[in-house]
Every structure is written in C-alpha cells, then in structure tokens.
Design goal:
Blueprint (H helix, E strand, L loop, with lengths): L1 E6 L3 H12 L4 E5 L10 E4 L2 E4 L6 E3 L2 H8 L12 E4 L2 E4 L4 H8 L4 H15 L7 H26 L29 E3 L5 H8 L4 E4 L7 H6 L1 E6 L3 H4 L9 E11 L9 E4 L8 E4 L11 E10 L8 E2 L3 H14 L5 E3 L1 H4 L6 H17 L1
Parallel strand pairs: 1-2, 1-10, 2-9, 6-12, 10-16
Antiparallel strand pairs: 3-4, 5-8, 6-7, 11-14, 11-15, 12-13, 13-14
Helix pairs in contact: 1-11, 4-5
Bound molecules: uridine-5'-diphosphate.
Length: 366
C-alpha cells in the first residue's frame, strides 16, 4: 500500500509527490507517457533542449514559488520578447512603444495613448464583453486587426467576439520601451532543461511510465490511500456529462543545418493566412552557440478524444460543464483533482506549483 498514488508526472504531480515524500509518506507516480515532466518535457536534440510540448518560460511574481523551483534547478536570465510577423512586417511584443511606433509612427506615450483612445472611441466600447472588445479597448483596431485577430482565431479556432476577454488580459500593454513579455519579477529557463528539474523533484520516488491509469483504475486504486489525479476531469468520468473542449497543438520540429533561423526564441505569425501560429527556435531560450538549430512550427487544432489536450477553452459553456464535473469529483472521496487538466484551468507553471503546494499543505494538515 502507498499513501499516495500520483497520476501524471507533470508539474502538479511532481510537486505533490515531492512534498509527500519529504513528509515521510510513501508515494507512487504513474504516467501514461514514456517520460516524466508532462507538457514541460524537454528533450536534447543536437545539444539543444527542445520543448517537445510547447515553449515554457518560467515566470512568477511569487518569491516563495521562485525559491521553491530554484531548489531543483538553476535558472538562466532568459527574458521572453517574442516578435510578431504580420505578412513579413515585424512588430515587438508585448504591445509597447516599439509596437506603437512601428504601427503608427508615434513617438511619445501621449501620442500612442491618443491613437488608441481615438480608435476605441470610434467603436463606442465601454464595458468589453468579449476578447475582441477587450483587445480593441486595450490597443485599438489597427493592432487588433494585425497582431491579435488572426493569431487568436488560429489559436482558439473561434471568432474573437466569442472568446472570453481574460485570455487577452494575459498580455501586458505598456507605454514604455520594454519588450519583456511578462510582468514578472522572476523569469528564466532551468539550465539543463525542465525534464532534469522535474527529475530532481521526483528523486527517490518510485515511478512507473507507460501506464494508463484510467485503463487500470481498479487495480491502481487498491494500492493507495489517496489518489492525486492530474489527467482530464471529463475523461476520469468517462465523459458522461459531455466532452469539455480543449485546443490541441501539433508540432513540426526540424533540425536545420545553420546556426540561426529567426534570431529569436519565438516568432508569432499573426496573420490569418499562415497556417502555423508560431515558430519556436529552441536554442535561443538558452543563448545557444551550436552550429545547428532546431525549430518547431506550432499548429493549433480542436482537440478530439485520443489526442493530447493542451489548452482548456474556458468559456461560459465549458465553465458550466466543468462545474458539474467538479461537483461529481467531490463525491470521489479518495481522489484529488489538480493541475491544468484536472481543474480545467488555463494555468501558468507558477500557478500550478502554487496550487500544488497549497494542496500539499492541506493534505499534510489533515
Ligand atoms: N495573442 C495575440 N497575438 C500574439 C500573442 C498572443 O493575439 O501575438 C493572444 C492570443 O489570443 C493568445 C493570448 O493572447 O491566446 C495569450 O497569449 P499567451 O502568449 O499568453 O499564450 P500561450 O503562450 O499560453 O499560448
């Protein structure tokens, strides 16, 4: 018997497993993939740590979370500054004075604010009700049309006026010349890759890979007092209340025989015509000096069962269905649901860690 069975070796599972082991509990971690680290998994190709399930840049304002992850890895000084490519025109992200200058030729913050105000006023938006209105309120129609609409509709597969406003509020808008994508005090990439960081969290803990919990549920439930389930909540219940919507991502990864493809870790293709949403050049997360480079084109698609779910579609309809699943989950006395899929939440890494640490404290204080 184990005290805890942790289903899923991603960040949420790894943090809880680590905390329980530290408190003297017996822990078994299982994952259906052949590797640990969930979607933060990195794999070395040509000496470059490739983010196999999409780019992950650690950023947080929470000092205790920052100190926590620094126990398991040293972080480099990477600062995320993606570039937007709109039909070959390049713009700085997040939206800042460089972006406004390139878009309108404005030079001062007052000029930029006046331009946005004028575009916003012409549409008469007071209370933004959806992503489109929110975006126009923040940056005006030109930036919305060139840098947001196409990207967002490719990324989410839904029109911007049918998406929740909060998605766009993830991005800062600044009237300064600051290309740092995140408003975060602490930021970086773990030196040696995320896989190594998660392996350090799981050190000394028994792990079984290639095991599908839902297919072997009865057997695995018998061997633990408590189950920490980090898979999709609707899948746990056999989709009996319906299927929650997710977006999936497909990556086309290529090794190129040149040292520099795009000169930046992330270039977002913000027009509607380019089929991919962004290209990641992995070496630039780590200031790579290799002779070759590895790039991944990201294609976004609607998730269908059997594929990897990435982004929960946190709109009203799915929110309601999730609440019903959550109610069901409260009757599963020995199972705790957590993480991006278990809580159906567009979590960043630091928030996942925060939530796993909180849950660990709760479990240990019972
Ligand atoms: N977004 C956009 N243009 C960009 C980058 C982002 O319109 O060039 C919007 C898009 O709707 C996206 C959201 O901002 O879903 C959040 O972007 P973020 O970079 O936080 O997404 P993630 O890295 O989690 O995919």
């Amino acid at each position: 018997m184990y005290d805890y069975l942790v289903v899923g070796a991603g960040l949420y599972g790894a943090v809880i497993a680590h905390e329980m082991k530290k408190a003297g509990k017996s822990v078994l971690v299982i994952d259906k993939r052949p590797n640990i680290a969930g979607n933060v998994y990195t794999e070395e190709i040509e000496g470059i740590n490739v983010h196999k399930y999409g780019a992950h840049i650690f950023h947080t304002n929470n000092k205790s979370v920052w100190n926590y992850v620094n126990q398991f890895a040293e972080f480099n000084r990477f600062t995320n500054s993606p570039v937007a490519n709109y039909h070959g025109e390049l713009y700085s992200l997040p939206f800042n004075m460089y972006t406004f200058n390139k878009m309108w030729g404005v030079v001062t913050p007052e000029e930029a604010e006046a331009k946005i105000e004028e575009q916003k006023r012409s549409l008469g938006i007071t209370e933004p009700k959806n992503l489109e209105e929110q975006a126009i309120s923040l940056v005006g129609t030109d930036i919305y049309e060139k840098l947001i609409k196409g990207y967002t509709e490719k990324q989410w597969g839904r029109p911007c006026d049918q998406l929740p406003a909060f998605i766009i509020k993830r991005l800062p808008v600044r009237f300064t010349f600051d290309n740092n994508y995140f408003n975060a005090l602490y930021q970086g990439i773990p030196i040696g890759g995320y896989t190594k960081m998660v392996a350090n969290m799981l050190e000394g803990i028994e792990i079984q890979l290639g095991i599908d919990y839902l297919e072997n549920k009865q057997e695995y439930d018998k061997i633990a007092e408590t189950v920490i389930y980090t898979g999709a909540i609707d899948a746990y219940f056999g989709f009996k209340l319906g299927t929650l919507e997710y977006r999936s991502v497909r990556f086309e990864t290529e090794v190129l025989d040149k040292p520099n493809f795009q000169g930046n870790a992330a270039v977002n293709y913000t027009d509607a015509e380019t089929p991919w949403t962004r290209i990641i050049e992995h070496k630039w997360f780590e200031f790579g000096t290799q002779l070759k480079t590895v790039i991944s084109r990201e294609y976004s698609s609607e998730w269908t069962p059997g594929e990897e779910p990435y982004y929960p579609v946190n709109d009203e309809k799915n929110g309601k269905m999730y609440e019903e699943y959550k109610r069901l989950s409260e009757n599963e006395k020995k199972v705790i649901f957590g993480g991006r899929l278990g809580e159906y939440k567009y979590y960043d890494m630091d928030k996942v860690i925060e939530s796993a640490l909180k849950k660990s404290d709760e479990l240990l204080s019972i």
